[in-house]
Every structure is written in C-alpha cells, then in structure tokens.
Amino acid sequence: MALLLEYLPLILFFVIYKTVDIFWATGVLIVAALVQLVYYKVSQGKIEKRHWIFAGVALVLGGMTLVFHDEQFIQWKATIIYALLGSALVISQLLFKTNLVQKALMGILSSVQEEQKVTIDIPSSVFNQLLIFWAILLYGIAALNLYVAYHYSLDVWVNFKVFGLMGITFVAILLTMFKIYKYLPEEK
C-alpha cells in the first residue's frame, strides 16, 4: 500500500496523459502531490524532505506548464529531481562527511539486524563505491531525461519517464543489493 501511495502521483499523471492530455495530467500531478503531503502529515505526523521537494518541484514546474501552456517545464521535473538527489549525495559527502547511501541502506538493514540479532558489517569502501555509483547514475538520469525530452516526441518522453526511469532505478537497486549481498547474514 505504501508503495502505491508513493507512486500514485506518477500513476495518475500517466493515466490522465493517456486519456486526456499533458496539461490535465500536469494539473492532476500537482493536486496528487499536494494530497500526498496532506496524507503523510495526517497519517504519520510528519512529511519527509523528499516529499516536500517532489511536491515543490511539481508545483513550480507544473504551475509554469499550465500558466505558459508549455510542456517543456514539466519535462524538466525529473531532471531537476534527479540532479538534486545526485547533488545531495555529493555535497553531503564532501561537506559533511556523511555518506547518504550508507545512511539509507543501514536504516533499511537495521530491521534485519534487530530481527536476527546480528551485526551487519559492510566496509566503508563498499559504501563509498555505492555513493559514486548512485551519484553518477542520478546525474546520468537527469541528463538522459533532457535528451529524451528534446529528441523524441512527448509520448515517448512520458513512457520513458514512467517506465524507463522506474526500470533504471529498479536495476540500480538490484545492483546495489548484489554489491552488499555477501555482507548480509545468512537466514537462520
């Protein structure tokens, strides 16, 4: 259910684009992003930074798309989001000596540690490699989104945004899991 809610604005954007047009889809995306913020505030008592960023970028670029009746603004959304994520990884490491990939993965793996009463010890060099991998990937996706947006039709871009970016992200998550798999405890 949580995964569906996470991707609901994207799913609605895609469905409305395919049934109506990009401008209706953009309006629905904005409304869905705002409703998502309200839902998280009511159900969890807080709103994660990433949800504020996604909603803010959707509101600004989506609003510009609607006001100027120009789909190029909404096409920039993925590029800005992925570039911001890549920059957050790099800046956090360089300025604050915090590996956000390590922090995220260890947060996810902490439930495994508690459940199995084990310690997961992954070398920092592995997390550093993953940080570089994810930063390059995120910047690459940002650039690829612009390439597709400016070299292909709007239909191709929408399909790429929904299925291509999701596919690339899924493969990257699998590669990340393969990288840390040998450090995970065996199931009892």
From TrEMBL:
It is a multi-pass membrane protein. The chain crosses the membrane at residues 22-40, 52-68, 74-96, 130-150, 162-181. The keyword Membrane applies. Its main location: membrane. It holds the Pfam family IspA. Keywords: Cell inner membrane, Cell membrane, Membrane, Transmembrane, Transmembrane helix. It is found in: Cell inner membrane. The keyword Cell inner membrane applies. Belongs to the YciB family. Plays a role in cell envelope biogenesis, maintenance of cell envelope integrity and membrane homeostasis. This is Inner membrane-spanning protein YciB. It comes from Pseudoalteromonas fenneropenaei.
